[in-house]
Amino acid sequence: xxxxxxxxxxxxxxxxxxxxxxxxxxxxxxxxxxxxxxxxxxxxxxxxxxxxxxxxxxxxxxxxxxxxxxxxxxxxxxxxxxxxxxxxxxxxxxxxxxxxxxxxxxxxxxxxxxxxxxxxxxxxxxxxxxxxxxxxxxxxxxxxxxxxxxxxxxxxxxxxxxxxxxxxxxxxxxxxxxxxxxxxxxxxxxxxxxxxxxxxxxxxxxxxxxxxxxxxxxxxxxxxxxxxxxxxxxxxxxxxxxxxxxxxxxxxxxxxxxxxxxxxxxxxxxxxxxxxxxxxxxxxxxxxxxxxxxxxxxxxxxxxxxxxxxxxxxxxxxxxxxxxxxxxxxxxxxxxxxxxxxxxxxxxxxxxxxxxxxxxxxxxxxxxxxxxxxxxxxxxxxxxxxxxxxxxxxxxx
Length: 397
What we know:
This protein is mainly β and 397 residues long. It is built from two helices and 25 strands. The chain has helices at residues 36-41, 126-129; strands at 20-25, 30-35, 53-55, 58-67, 70-75, 78-83, 89-91, 133-136, 142-147, 152-155, 167-169, 172-175, 254-257, 263-267, 276-279, 282-287, 294-299, 302-307, 313-315, 326-328, 337-339, 359-360, 364-365, 379-380, 386-387.
């Protein structure tokens, strides 16, 4: 090939892998050749301050070998991005992505920052925030979104909080798994389940809200129902459960009342005898036949005492005794009886003769310090004893 100047050579539109270029090896001061492939395949390592592949107008910006199998990108002589052999990318600085959609195909995204901003436009408003939130893709979208028209965060799915956790408003509990918070004092509930315990401190419950069989003795505390807690028209016949008592009027009735004041049994009694006072088999009776009126007393089924129409006193019935007899006590265990008087007797109004019986049938002791006499002959029956006080004498004449 004739000698020509380099400037006179034809321009190469593209280089093949085995095209050669002349180079001068200054270490040996000789001209050598190098293929285009080797020329651009091998670069010096470079540094962040002097990258191996840099721009002629600003050589502090470019690419260099930041470590074994680590490529670095530097700007202003400072490392900004590194990519290691596993494809891990580290960016030193802020990352701004400008586009309609950013797709991150990662299993887990870890962010050290503890605050995420969404909808960070130049002039954010509730209108620009409307519909913003988080969407988890599934068979249907699971969303947490801000709805401007309701001024609220809106969840498309259930919220299941852990055991022993609770919902709070302004730091105060309002709800947990089994109870409302003590700060919840008002409600618009229209129905509830079974209320096992509690004290009703609200307004009186109207008739229309009490079931026919709702109020039973077992469900009422002894002091639960007071006048102040019952509306004037709350308790009507329609709201009271029936008992086993047959409705109606009872005369001289026997009535049974339970601890709640309910009548549980009732029956009419027998009309009393207006002429008698009766207790068991003992009675006091007034009898008036028009001609034989009398008052009598009966004990243990037997007549003991009566006052007849003329005021006479009868013992054991119509035993009025004889004229001159006295009513004599026979001790604590026997009824009294009529006995002859021991005073002087005689014809008409005479009181001359003292009479006594002639046979002693019952043992008798003469009272000490007293005298006694009897006119005989006297007969003392066998087994009968007549006792004379030690300070007295028996005189027979």
